Give the backbone structure.
Amino acid sequence: QVQLVESGGGLVQAGGSLRLSCAASGRTFSTYAMAWFRQAPGKEREFVANIKWSAGSTNYANYADSVKGRFTISRDNAKNTVYLQMNNLKPEDTAVYYCFSPGYNVWGQGTQVTVSS
């Protein structure tokens, strides 16, 4: 059974930082793209970032315009883990953040991020 478990959420003041982790189990994820989405209260779930796999040393990443330059997605294939480093957080970043595996069509349970002004 494929599982994704997020961690690292919490309450932080505007301008602060958090690092989210998504630990995958049950399958090998190293050759698949992974993504982060978020859902704020009363809003639809939206794309945040994704990271593709490549045979070389470069991992190709894409970001939503709203987080570009502030968030960084990375992966450690040896640990089957994907990270989302979030810097210069803003109140509008408040949401439940979900990890997603497009290859296996599996979502994590989500982790709450709250940014106070």
